[in-house]
Specification:
This protein is α/β, with parallel strands linked by helices. Helix content is 19%, strand content 28%. It folds into 2 domains: 3-63 and 160-340, QueA-like, CATH 3.40.1780.10; 67-145, QueA-like (Thrombin, subunit H, Beta Barrel). It is built from 6 helices and 17 strands. The strands form 3 sheets. Strands 2-1-17-16-14-3-12-13-15 form a 9-stranded mixed β-sheet. Strands 5-6-7-10-9-8 form a 6-stranded antiparallel barrel. The model has no long low-confidence stretch (mean pLDDT 95).
Length: 341
């Protein structure tokens, strides 16, 4: 299975640069994974595809202002750091530009020394480990000095940082938003509850996997970077009950899906747990946890296109994507939505 099989031509003007004024006014393409049938709706119609007793699963991770611009203390060279993962004891895994300037022991200063980063580890692909030195609360300092880590295909300035957070974001730790959830409003979530649909939460902190393209020609040789996940006892009980009663588990986003499938693959049931996952889902994978998936339209040749192709079939996905392009759907993080049922 080659990476090229997941390529498609996308006009640049279809890459959404800004969020819509109201989150739930995005369009919704509904794909039936059994028949390949495509229906065009609006996101507020999502509720009509859920029934009483179903469970909607959301990733409640919160994005940190993880992109920092500082200077190398020795030379004054400008260094960009993207904080990816908290390794504990104030050590963070970061993606650095230009990485070749950063060796072990290099000190990068941010905000005139308000925050300093001392390189403690050098790794491939621009990855470095930094020991952070500061006074006060790190996340307050990041709020002051950092920028929201928008993907490289977004060139417009984000006017309101909250628009790159879901309305239910809670657990701080992501270097990117779980964008399938950006379409939900508090009002829509209330309507979903009123219909008797359960809402459950997991946490997966989105890290390097989101930023890394597939660089190998054979899909099976791609290695996912690991990301931290967590499931509560309450969520596990609710999901197991939903399954046992024959109701649907509706996963919001590929991050939620990877968490649910990781846990089911490890334990054969949902259970309270946490850990790191590097699960890579591509065609041939047998889904064990989810029934429906709400997702956005993803980049060509990405692991996310491979995941949705595993769920709906590659031919169905490519047909749906071509239809979305023809109908001028908005793509990627701030784009429109898709339901695979």
């Amino acid at each position: 299975m080659t990476t090229e099989e997941f390529d498609f031509d996308l006009p640049k003007e279809l890459i959404a640069q800004t969020p819509l004024e109201k989150r739930d006014t995005s369009r919704l393409l509904v794909l039936d994974k059994q028949t390949g049938e495509i229906t065009h709706r609006h996101f507020t119609d999502i509720i009509s595809y859920m029934e009483k007793g179903d469970t909607l699963v959301l990733n409640d991770t919160k994005v940190i202002p993880a992109r920092l611009y500082g200077v190398k203390e020795e030379t004054g060279a400008v260094i960009e750091i993207l904080m990816l993962q908290d390794k504990g004891s104030n050590v963070w895994e970061c993606l650095v530009k230009p990485a070749k300037r950063i060796k072990e022991g290099t000190v990068v200063s941010f905000g005139n020394g308000k925050l300093k980063a001392i390189c403690t580890g050098v790794f491939d692909e621009g990855i470095r480990h930094f020991k952070l030195v500061y006074s006060g609360i790190l996340y307050e300092i990041l709020d002051e000095l950092g920028e929201m880590p928008l993907p490289p295909y977004i060139h417009e300035k984000l006017e309101n940082n909250d628009r790159y957070q879901t309305v239910y974001a809670k657990n701080i730790g992501s270097a990117a938003a779980p964008t399938a959830g950006l379409h939900f409003t508090e009002e829509l979530l209330d309507k979903i509850k009123e219909k008797g649909i359960n809402i459950a939460y997991i946490t997966l902190h989105v890290g390097l996997g989101t930023f890394r393209p597939v660089s190998v020609s054979d899909v099976t040789n791609h290695k996912m970077h690991s990301e931290y996940y967590m499931m509560s006892k309450e969520t596990a009980l609710l999901l197991n009950e939903t399954k046992s009663r024959g109701h649907k588990i509706i996963s919001v986003g590929t991050t939620t899906t990877r968490t649910l499938e990781t846990i089911m693959s490890l334990y054969g049931t949902f259970k309270e747990c946490s850990g790191f996952t590097d699960i890579f889902i591509y065609p041939g994978y047998e889904f064990k946890g989810i029934d429906y998936l709400i997702t956005n339209f993803h980049l060509p040749k990405s692991t996310l296109v491979m995941l949705v192709s595993a769920l709906a079939g590659k031919d169905n996905i490519m047909k749906a994507y071509n239809e979305a392009i023809k109908e001028k759907y908005r793509f990627f993080s701030f784009g429109d939505s898709m339901l695979i049922k």
